[in-house]
Known about the structure:
By secondary structure, the chain is α/β, with parallel strands linked by helices.
Amino acid sequence: MIVRDVRLEGAATDLRVADGVFTEIGPDLVATPGEEIVEGHGRLVLPPFIESHIHLDSVLTAGDPEPNRSGTLFEGIERWAQRKEKLTVADVKERVNRVVRQQASFGVQFVRTHVDVTDPSLTALRALLELRDELSDVMTIQIVAFPQEGICSFPGGKDLMREAVGLGVDALGAIPHFEFTREYAVDSLNFVAELAAESGLLIDVHCDEIDDEASRGLETLATRAYELGLGGRVTASHTTAMHSYNNAYFTRLLRLLTMSGINFVSNPVVNTHLQGRTDTYPKRRGVTRVKELTEAGINVSFGQDDICDPWNPLGTGNLRDVVFTGLYVTQMLGHDQIADSHRFVTTNAARTLNLGEAYGIEVGRPANFVVLDAGSWYDALNWNAVVVGSYRAGRLITRTEPVRREVLF
Ligand SMILES: [Zn+2]
């Protein structure tokens, strides 16, 4: 197959795909007899979008059994604890199947989902493990064992984490700011770092998702990553307390973060909704320092976090909305910052997920790509261009008609 006349990194080109991989990339490719040709009409191609932080187990549960009336993170955890009692494998699979298809229609092909393992039956984890296999042809799902109610503060928390490793998770989580004490927070991070070093798994911690400037799980996580040589296998998600750190502390911390080589995920939509809830005025935005981390050469990606669940009553899974909001909230609307901002949900996120050569539009790599109804990312972002086609190993897996508006005056 040849995909003809598309824009790749600012230049017009064609793509040739055979046996599910890119075999040739360049202008004016000549079709062989009988070779299928897809017209690109000068549209933008990108590698598929990557959802680097979401909670698929809780999607589409907002209001069930009760809505989160205060809009806080902590009430969200209480509401989820109620809903968790009703979970069945079939319930989780039905909701996740719906959301994954919606994500796919927005050009997402890779998802890192956190799954709550503070549940002695591990129901949601079992459902997600089944889905990871069932959907692998169309969606790559990475599963993080996420201890929503703590590792040291939840009865049997460490055993549940070990059980999740045995069942086959891809990554280990932690939630230091929710542990009962600072000592438990440190202990939980040490536990996870050692378990990951032993098992070869990745780490993705819900780290300091609170407006408390004294919440400093991140320095422990980064130090363990540095000392154990885990580097890019480790991700710190949220780190919203960093928003409130004093600059002297942040400057010292930045040296460690750079040395450690860890990744960051910011969830700008959900954290602007959840954070600052104990403030009167001024109210903090509660989003981590994406601009400063990026300028220091540290890898940051953006995630949606929640779709219609106890922490976010809205959300579609369209990562364009996350990038759009994220650039406003982090004040990253310089021309060049906009132009390459898809990287927060493409190449940067690929690094977070450790996708390596499984990702990217290059000869020899799997022919996974999306075609947008725009000639540039700048236009696609601004005008919310639809993904007209999402290709997985060269196969069209979603298709959306371009929006055509008529103004009748
Ligand atoms: Zn999260």
